[in-house]
Amino acid sequence: MAFWMGVASAEHARGGRDGGFAQLGHGRHIAVKPLKKGDWIVYYSPREGMGEGKAVQAFTTIGRVTSEAPYRAAQAMDFNPYRVDVDYLTDARPALIRPLLNTLHLTRDHVASWGMVMRGPKRRIEEEDMRRIAEAMGVLAEFENAQN
Length: 148
Prior knowledge:
The chain is α+β, with helices and mostly antiparallel strands and 148 residues long. Helices cover 24% and strands 31% of the residues. The protein has helices at 10-19, 29-32, 114-117, 127-136, 140-147, and strands spanning 3-7, 21-22, 40-49, 52-65, 71-72, 82-88, 95-96, 122-125. Strands 1, 2, 3, 4, 5, 6, 7 and 8 form an eight-stranded mixed β-sheet that branches. A hairpin with a 2-residue loop joins strand 3 (40-49) and strand 4.
């Protein structure tokens, strides 16, 4: 089992949660290919919309991958992104990143330049970081129960 952080606008993260899927890197296969059934993914959202809207700077959705492999989805004309199915913890609430900067392995050595660490479509993160994020999102018990 692996733990991943995806980066997407809050609007896109909620759309994935509501649709029960994860899509990374503008739907590129290479971005979702490493995600396996049983892995966990949390989304960090820098802004409300894609490149626009108010700053969010929070972890917005969290869930567990349920599909065996990525698949292509028919989304729009000439756009068929690769996705994986995800069972999201629907009680999760957004967790601002700033209070977590000094505690996450991902950012604690880069507090002054944490924004650079959060770039790109995804990052593999430590289980301890996922646990801290789940706690900040108010779903630690659900996360731990789903591990068993």
